[in-house]
Specification:
The complex is a heterodimer of chains A (247) and B (675). Chain A is α+β, with helices and mostly antiparallel strands and 247 residues long. Chain A has two domains: 108 residues, Roll (Ubiquitin-like (UB roll)); 129 residues, Fumarate Reductase Iron-sulfur Protein, Chain B, domain 2, CATH 1.10.1060. Helix content of chain A is 34%, strand content 11%. The relative contact order of chain A is 0.14. With 675 residues, chain B is α+β, with helices and mostly antiparallel strands. Among the domains of chain B are: 141 residues, Succinate dehydrogenase/fumarate reductase flavoprotein, catalytic domain (Flavocytochrome C3, Chain A, domain 1, Alpha-Beta Complex), CATH 3.90.700.10; 125 residues, Methane Monooxygenase Hydroxylase, Chain G, domain 1, CATH 1.20.58. In chain B, the strands form six sheets. In chain B, strands 1-22-21-11-19 form a five-stranded mixed sheet. Chain B has a five-stranded parallel sheet with strand order 6-3-2-10-20. The longest helix of chain B has 25 residues. Classes of the chains: A alpha+beta (247), B alpha+beta (675). At the A-B interface, helix 1, helix 2 and helix 3 of A face helix 3, helix 5, helix 6, helix 11 and helix 12 of B.
């Protein structure tokens, strides 16, 4: 099939970007979206034009490195990562608009590549359990109710791709944060630092320039791992509790 | 089922028969001095690690912050080491090419992590895990290292649980286990089909905690392009900032490579797009021996190739083999039929037929080759690619009937979803199609018992080293090794080396540093100024085709010699005719790939030479010239019970082969049998 691509091109962080149009023929339904861009890039290189820069690594939907706005939707029309989106989701003759994640806290590095270093810094601010190597008790010394472990796991599947931020009209990272707060907060091991964790992470979130949550829910709709919106309630609950406790 | 599965074929006369041929690789290498000392302590095998930990010298806590450690790679091996060494108070610099340490490819491991906890009381023990791992590796791993791995395995689970890794649990709140390919006990801990992700997030969070504490500095989107060796010791790296293009010099007292495996030499593999050999290959060129580079693991359960646009292959966790049954039609004429219409009696459950006691759970190499053979016979299924159907069925209909759809979904739901997304087919209704793909490399930089390479001050952990998996890695053992090395082994052994530090300060103006930096700058400017006609990817794809064809699941003397010629020609052409656009002072993904492919070309040649030299079949290395009458792999312990450690002798020079004899004191070498 044949598609028309309108892709954001921006040489570097300091330069101004613009949309550019490319026609691509011979696209197979079995190609992933990123393989389609690989084919485009081989064409561009053959013509002596700079290939389109985009991030991807595992290409199996788990590393969280890829992420594009496709026709205005984070990761495109399916509930999955960009690398797992296949061209069978498009039709012959479609026009496809491809942009980088849109958020002030994710500045563009080049073309479709953005800087998500802010997510690492939010984790540094408390998204962990403090346990030095070698000091752990025997694994069975603390049983964890199966439902709690399952709930923790279900939100620990967050891949840190940033789709929630890109989809949010406020550019908030509340879903990302809420997922981590809930993951660690569901487990007995996460209790001692529950207050300091949420306070630290929220403060860093705001310092990075992410917006506030106004319960719109675009984040959870865009999330390729289907992290539920109630993790944000959990985040707020924990934050209020921590403040009540004097943090 | 708890008996040791090793009772057959011990007296097979063909087993010790000398190979009929002499030196296949004559003319391709230079014999070197054997390696006599691996630095493993003497004494009973179960006391060696305790001995080493005690004898390894300590570093005073006040001195630790004066010692700089560079760690390249942030997967399970690198991330866990950065966290642990940071906690200990050393000054750690951590490098990764991704935009965050959390993206390292350990994250994609699905199935689980082994540990000798014996929670199921099914006869497991440290010794049995050790035994299974050595046997699974087809007696080509180093006994003392594997025993240690088994010994520390239980600590890993404790550590990860304490970090908040949400392993699967039973209703009583205790940890659940499952069994995995090649073993008869349930010792695999898992977090649905995303165990690697959960373990890596645990290590990542521990490392980020140290970043906040100021002991670890992380350098993301940085790629190591050269090792700095001064006065015979590893003293730093040259790295490129992938965003600004700046070539940076980073000096340290010790360098740790945890940069993963080189499966992408095959172009198509289950590795991440960026996984590469550059860090270890540059170290190899500076004097670090590369051991057993031909030992490649071809994973039996991947989604088949659909066409030439394919950029990578996707693994379906081996845990699927616990409940899925593998089959192909008995008749070629049934291969294009809807599998649901093929009656039971017309199906060939070939693994259950050939290996009745292990059935669908035979080790990976055996399962892979068996799939190749049935497809070569013309009984493969799925679409024809280049005239052959390369796929076999993995069927869950019996499991759904036995356990119910909900139970199957609970166990494998995310894997089924992934399969459906990629293929457009629903595996609850119709059998999955699978085919083998390159997944893991057992070969890597040679290390001693301390995980130190042949260059003092260079340590190598995880998939990047060679030591624990022999010629074949068992399922759920890579996660175990990565975390064992990073959390529990390296932190003890590295202190013995660092006890001599801080080493004399090296200036950036030192001739060896200047030379390393200049070689990187020259390479970058060469790629950008060649202005040839072919893209980097086209070379990579061609190299991959050569490797898969001649150095893949089955290898022959003629094929390997042909491959070496083809690779040499391709390499010459690459250096003269590659086309890399753009500039060096910005994000330039073609330039990044060019450097990686240049190193893959050199590695590919060495892999073929190593495979050519090893005229025996062992684990993932199958030489067609060395098989039993019924087509099973045939080792030649009298000739090849050694580690082949290759030394780089210079461009255009023959590599030098150093042999480390494998001596087993706690285990008897036997021909593997899973029948």
């Amino acid at each position: 099939m044949k598609v028309t691509l309108k892709i954001w091109r921006q040489p570097d962080a300091a330069s101004k970007g613009a949309m550019q149009t490319y026609e691509l023929d011979g696209v197979s339904q079995d190609m992933s979206f990123l393989e389609m861009l690989d084919v485009l890039n081989e064409d561009l290189i053959a013509k002596g034009e700079d290939p389109v820069a985009f991030d991807s690594d595992c290409r199996e939907g788990i590393c969280g490195m890829c992420g594009l706005m496709i026709n205005g939707q984070a990761h495109g029309p399916e509930v999955t990562t960009t690398c797992q989106l296949h061209m069978r989701s498009f039709k012959d003759g479609d026009e496809i608009v491809v942009e980088p994640w849109r958020a002030d806290a994710f500045p563009v590095v080049k073309d479709l590549v953005v800087d998500r270093g802010a997510f690492d810094r939010i984790i540094q601010a408390g998204g962990f359990i403090s346990v030095n190597t070698g000091s752990a008790p025997e694994a069975h010394s603390v049983p964890v109710p199966r439902d709690d472990a399952t709930r923790a796991f279900n939100v620990a599947t967050c891949i840190g791709c940033g789709a929630c931020v890109a989809a949010c009209p406020n550019g908030s990272a509340s879903l990302f944060m809420g997922a981590k707060i809930t993951h660690l907060g569901e487990l007995p091991q996460g209790q001692p630092e529950r207050d300091s964790r949420v306070v630290g992470m929220v403060a860093q979130h705001d310092a990075e320039g992410f917006g506030g949550c106004t319960n719109i829910g675009e984040c959870t709709a865009a999330c390729p791992k289907e992290i539920p919106l109630d993790v944000i309630s959990r985040l707020n609950w924990d934050l209020h509790a921590a403040l009540r406790h004097g943090h | 089922m708890t008996d040791m599965p090793d009772t057959t074929l011990t007296g097979d006369p063909s087993h010790d028969a000398p190979a009929e041929h002499g030196d296949d690789a004559a003319g391709y290498y230079t014999p070197g001095e054997p390696i006599r000392d691996t630095k493993a302590p003497e004494g009973p095998i179960d006391e060696r690690w305790q001995t080493r930990k005690f004898e390894a010298r300590l570093v005073n806590p006040a001195n630790r912050r004066k010692l700089d450690i560079i760690i390249v790679g942030t997967g399970l091996a690198g991330g866990s080491a950065a966290a642990t060494l940071g906690e200990a108070g050393y000054n750690v610099k951590s490098f990764c090419y991704q935009d965050s340490p959390r993206r390292a490819h350990s994250i994609a491991a699905q199935g689980g992590i082994n540990a000798a906890k014996n929670y199921k009381e099914d006869g497991d023990s440290v010794h049995r895990l050790f035994y299974d791992t050595v046997k699974g590796g087809d007696y080509r791993s180093r006994e003392s290292n594997v025993y240690r791995l088994s010994e520390v395995s239980a600590n890993i689970i404790d550590q990860c649980v304490a970090q908040g890794v949400p392993f699967a649990r039973e209703y009583g709140g205790l940890l659940d286990n499952r069994s995995f390919g090649g073993v008869q006990v349930s010792r695999t801990f898992y977090a649905r089909g995303q165990t690697g992700q959960q373990l890596l997030i645990g290590a990542y969070q521990a490392m980020e905690r140290q970043v906040a504490a100021g002991t670890v500095t992380q350098y993301t989107r940085h790629e190591m392009l050269e090792l700095i060796v001064v006065d015979g010791r590893a003293r730093g790296i040259i790295a490129r900032d992938l965003v600004t293009g700046e070539i940076e010099t980073h000096l340290a007292d010790v360098v740790v490579l945890a940069s993963g495996g080189y499966g992408n030499v095959f172009y198509l593999s289950t590795n991440a797009m960026g996984s590469n050999v550059t860090a270890t290959w540059r170290a190899h060129r500076k004097g670090a021996y590369m051991a057993n580079p031909c030992y490649t693991q071809i994973h039996p359960t991947c989604i088949p190739v659909t066409g030439s646009h394919q950029s990578k292959l996707t693994l379906m966790s081996e845990s699927l083999r616990n409940d899925g049954r593998i089959w192909v039609p008995k008749q070629k004429s049934d291969c294009d039929k809807d599998p649901r219409q093929i009656p039971e009696q017309d199906r060939d459950y070939y693994l259950e037929r050939i290996y009745p006691s292990f059935g669908n759970l035979v080790p990976r190499d055996i399962a892979s080759r068996a799939a190749k053979y049935v497809c070569d016979e013309g009984r493969g299924v799925g679409p024809e690619v280049d005239g052959v159907r390369r796929g076999v069925y993995l069927d869950f209909s019996a499991a759904v009937e036995r356990l119910g759809r909900d139970a199957v979904e609970e166990k494998y739901g995310n894997l089924f979803d992934m399969y459906a997304r990629i293929t457009g087919e629903n595996p609850y209704d119709t059998p999955m199609r699978i085919y083998p793909a390159v997944h893991y490399v057992m070969g890597g930089l040679w290390v001693d018992y301390d995980l130190q390479a042949s260059i003092p001050g260079l340590f190598v952990t995880g998939e990047a080293n060679f030591s624990d998996h022999g010629a074949n890695r068992l399922g759920a053992s890579a996660l175990m090794q990565g975390l064992a090395d990073g959390y529990f082994v390296l932190p003890h052994t590295i202190r013995d080396y660092l006890a001599d530090g801080p080493f004399e300060k090296v200036e950036e103006t030192h001739p060896d540093v200047v030379e390393a930096r200049k070689s990187v700058e020259d390479r970058v400017s060469h790629f950008l100024s060649t202005n040839g006609t072919r893209s980097v990817d086209s070379y990579h794809r061609e190299l991959g085709n050569i490797m898969w064809e001649y150095c893949g699941m089955e290898r022959t003397e003629d094929g390997l010699k042909k491959a070496i010629d083809l690779i040499r020609t391709l390499k010459d052409d690459f250096w003269r005719n590659v086309k890399v656009l753009g500039t060096s002072d910005s994000l330039n993904q073609s330039l990044e790939k060019a450097g990686r492919v240049a190193d893959f070309l050199e590695l590919g040649e060495l892999m073929c030479i190593d495979a050519l030299n090893r005229r025996e079949s062992c684990g993932g290395h199958f030489r067609a010239e060395s098989q039993t009458e019924d087509g099973e792999a045939l080792r030649h312990d009298d000739q090849y019970a050694y580690v082949a450690a290759w030394e780089f002798a210079g461009d255009g020079e023959l590599p030098v082969l150093h042999k480390e004899d494998l001596v087993y004191t706690a285990i008897e070498m036997k021909q593997r049998s899973y029948k």
